[in-house]
Amino acid sequence: MTAVIAPGEPGWQRLNPWMLAVTPLRQLAGLLPVIAVVVVIGIGQDVGGRIYSVLAGVLVVLFTGMLRWFTTRYRITSERVELRTGVVFRSTRSVARDRIRSVDVTAGPIHRLFRLSVVKIGTGERAEGREARELTLDAISAAEADRVRQRLLDPLDAGGPDRSDAPAATELAALSWSWLRFAPLTVSSLVALVAVAGAIGQLINDVGANAVDVGGVREKLTMAPLWVGIAAFAVLVLMIALGGSVLIFIEAWWGFTLVRELGGTLRIRRGLFTTRSVSLEERRLRGVEVVEPPLLRFGRGARTIAVATGLGGRRGHGRGTLLPPAPRSEAHRVSGAVLAEDPSPTASVLRRHPLVALRRRLVRATVPVLVASAALWLAPVPTWVAWAVLGLLPVAVLLALDAYCNLGHALTSHYLVTRHGAGVRGTVALQRTGVIGWTVSQSLLQRRAGLVTVTATTAAGNGGYSVIDIETSEGLAVAEQAVPGLLEPFVQHDVSGVTHPLGSTA
Q1: Which of 66, 213, 298, 433 has the greatest count of CB atoms below 10 A from its CB?
Q2: Are the CB atoms for 283 and 249 separated by under 8 Å?
């Protein structure tokens, strides 16, 4: 049955014909290890039968790719984006244009070989831990992908306000190779390297190879003192970690640029082998967050992350990253440029919290260590175990001091700024107009200390950003000043009974 198309609306379109080559090549690349194993195992046995089995599998992959191209159609109208697939079991997915929150364009090595791209159109909705109602156009030409991206994000095309007076595209940030010094300070790079090293080690073990036998290395290590072997192994691991983390950084952030485009769109482009392009509408931006993990803090580095609606989860699964690991000063500069605020709100001088908040952190950090150590002293375990646990006490104290030093808040003309964290320090600048409600909470111990936690509720980012352990009257005053009138109907109640403006009980 032929779909009815409104006058002036485009008809159904096919994906790019080169998809007939791209899909099989990608699938065959994933099957190469299996093919290699089949061929190796088949040596000395029924080689012909195994080769025929491999060829049959390749033909199935080729046929599947061809069938997918012949049965896939898409179209973009003034109101919806639609994708239709299947022959026997036909599936049609549709997303309203006004629900689109992100348009991401990626291109892996094989796609780039044929000048193709993959366009992912998301609504930012989540269902069962994964992206819901996301349409993927895999694959269309790179030029067509850019036209689709611009059209879906163009407010004029969707009937939005006239932006003819909008400024030209402006570059807000670009990659500096001096930032490579932060590559070894990223935990994700080290974790990835450990996984790769483990896989290589398992492969060497499976094939029976023993690298330390080469050149008599095993004999030399056996004769050397134990500390020499441990030191050599540590140096080897460190060298691999440093070199690998730099390579991972280069692949991920090659050609990075952050641009404000005509029409009010932030666009992040990056990637060496796999290129990525993420577009974020500024009208959905509610603030920024400067994140400083422990290793980056040690090197005076930080990341800048967007607080926006429609990113699809906590920190957008990478979509909201506005800046790679970079100097802390650059992270604050970029956050100010993104928010069009000078100086940046994230660099504001923050108001310190009462000293009683330090006492709370010291108690919560040290009491569990002392209790666990005392229990181990009384338990039938070796004495050194209790001493080992007690040795964690200085670390706990340092973390408590760090957590207190990181507490702070401020109000600017347009933003609520809050900072907290032990180890990982996060500074958030949240638009005051983006606050849709307040949650005021106070535990029994907080009440005895005269403290309160005030959380600004928003539809963006994590859904709420807290000013933790602030003096009670000051916390209520901050909430009232940030969004005048929003908390006023409830401030006369006891803090433990403050009602959220949206109807939930804080």
Answers
A1: 66
A2: no
Exposure on the CB side of residue 223, measured as CA atoms within 13 A: 4
pLDDT digits (tens, 9 = 90+) for 424-483: 999 999 999 999 999 999 999 999 999 999 999 998 888 899 999 999 999 999 999 999
- Give residue 150's domain range: 19-162
CA angle 45, 49, 51 (to 5 degrees): 100
41 and 135 housed in the same domain: yes
Contacting residues for 259 by C-beta, under 8 A, at least 6 apart = 169, 170, 171, 172, 266, 267, 269
Structural domain ending residue among the three candidates 104, 135, 162: 162
Please check the confidence at residue 503 and state whether its pLDDT lies above 50: no
Determine the distance from the C-alpha atom of residue 349 to the mean position of all C-alpha atoms in its chain, rounded to a whole number: 28
Residue 138, C-beta contacts closer than 8 angstroms, at least 6 positions apart: 15, 19, 118, 119
Please tell me the least confidently modeled range out of 9-18, 184-193, 337-346.
184-193
pLDDT of 4 over the 50 cut: no
Whose tokens are 């639609």? That residue is 82
92 shares a domain with 210: no
The alpha carbon of residue 152 and the mean position of all alpha carbons in its chain are separated, in whole angstroms, by 23
Bond prior to 343 in cis (omega within 30° of 0): yes
Task: Determine, yes or no, domain membership for 386.
Answer: yes
Q: What is the largest CA-CA distance in the chain?
A: 86
279: tokens are 């577009």
Sheet containing strand 415-420, strands side by side: 321-327, 301-308, 285-292, 425-431, 415-420, 408-411
Q: If you count them, how many residues does the chain have?
A: 506
- Number of H-type helices and E-type strands within the chain: 14, 21
Q: Which of 406, 408, 407, 414 is nearest to 435 (CA)?
A: 414
One-letter identity of residue 178: S
Please, are residues 121 and 132 in contact by the beta-carbon 8 Å criterion?
Answer: no
Count the alpha carbons within 13 Å of 320 in the hemisphere toward its beta carbon. Answer: 29
